[in-house]
Design goal:
Elements lengths: L1 H20 L13 E2 L25 H4 L5 H4 L7 E2 L4 E4 L6 E3 L4 E7 L4 E6 L4 E4 L2 E11 L5 E2 L2 E2 L2 E8 L5 E10 L5 H6 L12 E7 L11 E7 L7 E8 L3 E3 L1 H9 L20 E4 L10
Parallel strand pairs: 2-9, 3-17, 12-15, 12-16
Antiparallel strand pairs: 1-13, 4-7, 5-6, 5-13, 6-8, 7-8, 8-11, 9-10, 11-12, 14-15, 14-17
Length: 291
């Protein structure tokens, strides 16, 4: 018995030594070209929400998951929406979109599991609408597109999320079709995606120019809506370029590759318009062209 007790004591001491020798997870200073790994878990059930239409965590149930997400189900100004000729009012008085993307911003790419996101750190790039300045904070992609054009989803949509000093949100969206020509910004990012294969992984990719996301500033849709992911906060000012960009099949596949299986098609269903005003700003000499 004494020998057995001694063996148990020795095993316990060895286990304690091994446990204490393991380094604790710590926050790292990210250097350019270094990927930081975070153990957030990649199992389907670990996600707070997903895009599986049959799941209790899917878009039709987002508003039931948390009380603070109730707007996803009860809100009256939700996004995305159908953009149709019948519901659009053509105007010219909004004028060209005032986008001031003049600086290359230090950028971090993050795998959020349900989307690939870019954080524009210390960005000085801004959007100016109705006397309010909105600073570019993040951008992310949805595939297929969330907004539809005359009932049709396109292949991809990027959202550029801006915030004012008072906390107001304005989002610029660009839609894409698969085509021969690659998107210039995605081209700069996709070769880093292999280094962030897990949820929470992020990589500093250095200073990037956000201008490739901006299309024709004279022609765009404008309406009041919401965030398209929980908590689905409303009173978001939406601007969607009429001009459609192109993305290659390879770029589209790489943006989806490391997302969760329940979020590879990460587009929220379109929401009721509820008599909201949707404007299409165009120069006066083109106001008859809705398509």
């Amino acid at each position: 018995m004494e020998t057995l007790a001694t063996q148990v004591l020795i095993c316990s001491l060895l286990t304690t030594i091994v446990f204490l020798s393991c380094p604790a997870m710590s926050q790292e200073v990210i250097k350019k070209g270094d990927a930081v790994k975070h153990d957030y878990g990649i199992e389907k059930n670990d996600a707070e929400f997903n895009y599986d239409m049959r799941s209790k965590k899917g878009p039709f149930h987002w508003g039931e998951i948390k009380p603070e997400w109730s707007q996803c189900q009860k809100g009256s100004m939700q996004s995305p929406i159908h953009l149709t000729n019948e519901t659009i009012k053509i105007v010219s008085e909004l004028g060209p979109l005032q986008v001031n993307y003049t600086a290359r911003s230090h950028t971090t790419v993050v795998n959020k599991g349900h989307q690939i996101m870019m954080k524009w750190n210390e960005s000085t790039n801004f959007l100016h609408i109705n006397g309010t300045q909105y600073l570019l904070k993040t951008s992310h992609w949805h595939s297929p597109s969330e907004h539809t054009l005359n009932g049709k989803r396109l292949d991809l949509e990027v959202h550029m999320v801006h915030e004012s000093p008072s906390g107001q949100t304005a989002v610029i969206g660009t839609l894409y079709r698969v085509g021969e020509f690659p998107d210039a910004l995605i081209d700069l990012v996709i070769h880093h995606l292999k280094d962030i294969p897990h949820i929470g992984d992020e990589m500093d990719v250095g200073p990037l120019d956000p201008n490739p996301m901006i299309k024709d500033v004279n022609s765009y849709y404008r309406y009041m809506g919401s965030l398209t992911t929980p908590p689905c906060t409303e009173n978001v000012l939406w601007t969607l370029f009429k001009e459609v960009g192109t993305v290659t099949p390879e770029q589209l596949e790489l943006l989806r590759k490391h997302l969760r299986h329940d979020s590879k098609a990460n587009a929220r269903p379109t929401q009721p318009l509820n008599n909201r005003l949707v404007e299409l700003n165009q120069p006066k000499n083109t106001t008859s062209d809705k398509n």
